[in-house]
Amino acid sequence: MSAYCMTADMSRLFASYGVTAFADHDESGTADTGVTDDCISQASEEIDMYALQLYAAASLATSALINRWATVMAVYFLCMRRGNGIPESIAAEFDRIMAMLLKVADGTLKLPGVAMDGDLRPSFSNLKVDRRYRDSRIRVRRSVSTDAPSVLSQDFATDPPTYE
Question: What SS3 state is found at 88?
């Protein structure tokens, strides 16, 4: 798993005093790196949960938009750590990001400048239903198909439906 933001990004958004105030669990005057790392990890995993269906992690790691989203999410999770109140601006931005991530997950919103992962072209075979058999087997028609090699994957149905 790759982290999509760093503690320095969180400090630029929330100010270094804010990060220290919310992440200083041992009251030493400095932010505990374990706390900020946990928040960054949680934000990155949340983004992965929605975006890795269509995008490669390496591509997401180079996106400035993903960096901003992860930073806001990490600050949101940092604020939640000890039951602290979440600033309204951070909460509103978090809600907006989550709505966009849902659209990314279902494919209605594309991330700008990030190449999609995998082959998204539809594939099909020329089929015919062979009625000579009792359960009407579905068969691929090789005479209408070509023998040219393809890089596309083929979906195999383990047990095709029978129609009576």
Answer: helix
pTM for this structure? 0.70
Residue type (1 letter), 25: H
- 127 backbone dihedrals φ, ψ, rounded to 5°: -115, 155
Output 140-144 pairs: Cβ under 8 A, ≥24 positions apart: none
The segment with the largest mean pLDDT, out of 42-51, 121-130, 140-149, 153-162, is: 42-51
* Residue 58 domain boundaries: 7-105
Residue whose token pair is 């400090």: 11
Domain count, the chain: 1
For residue 72, give Cα distances in angstroms to 28, 88, 150. Answer: 25, 12, 43
146 SS3 class: coil
Alpha carbon distance 9, 13 (integer Å):
6
Q: What is the DSSP string of 105-139?
A: HTTSSPPTT-PBPS--------EEEETTSTT-EEE
Q: Read off the DSSP letter of residue 26.
A: T
Residue 70 lies in a domain: yes
Look up tokens 């602290």; give the residue. Answer: 84
